[in-house]
Write a structure and sequence with these properties.
- The chain is an alpha+beta fold and 166 residues long.
- The chain has a domain of 112 residues.
- 25% of the residues lie in helices and 27% in strands.
- The chain has three helices and nine strands, in the order H-E-E-H-E-E-H-E-E-E-E-E.
- Strands 1, 3, 4, 8 and 9 form a five-stranded mixed beta sheet that branches. A two-stranded antiparallel sheet has the order 2-5. A two-stranded antiparallel ribbon has the order 6-7.
- Strand 3 and strand 4 form a beta hairpin.
- The N and C termini lie far apart (68 Å).
Length: 166
């Protein structure tokens, strides 16, 4: 009998606690993950082919020659300076490729070796971003028989100011 009363009380407690949970409304932006045009950062001539239907499957954005070609171009265009020597960390560059294989809306986040926000020299940041802006062999996503604009992000690891990994 005591066991039944105990189980009954636990059941009632459980049911009462379920009713008291607060429902939080989840407010998602209309275009989660999209990079809106920013007059201060973006080229006004860069246009998406269909801004309402941008593919977020980054694996479908390709580069002619793959990552080896990207690595080669980065190594060829990166101009090491001894003042970069003190930086160890990651550059995470995000951008969109439109259906004309043009890249734009570049955004960058820089993290140190322990994945905290970092602030290397402005010169190094501009240099890295300019190299990525000069990559011209992008291939837009083609998915389920349709052409799309698509997002891509690349993480670049730098150790002692030298590119180590893309």
């Amino acid at each position: 009998m005591k066991r039944n009363i105990f189980l009954f009380l636990i059941g009632v407690t459980f049911l009462c606690s379920c009713n008291q949970t607060e429902k939080k409304s989840q407010n998602y932006q209309n275009q989660i993950g999209d990079t809106p045009f920013d007059v201060n950062l973006d080229d006004a001539n860069f246009q998406l082919c269909d801004a309402s239907n941008t593919l977020h499957k980054r694996a479908y954005v390709k580069y002619d020659g793959g990552y080896k070609a990207i690595q080669k171009e980065l190594n060829e265009n990166y101009k090491f300076q001894t003042k970069y020597n003190s930086f160890n960390g990651y550059f995470i560059i995000r951008f969109v490729i439109n259906c004309k294989d043009e890249a734009g809306r570049f955004r960058m986040e820089v993290l140190d070796g322990t994945f905290n926000l970092a602030n290397p020299s402005k010169e190094l940041q501009i240099h890295i971003l300019d190299i990525f802006k000069d990559l011209k062999k992008w291939k837009h996503p083609f998915y389920e028989g349709k052409d799309y604009d698509g997002y891509k992000f690349i993480t670049l690891k730098i150790v002692n100011g030298q590119i180590q990994l893309v």
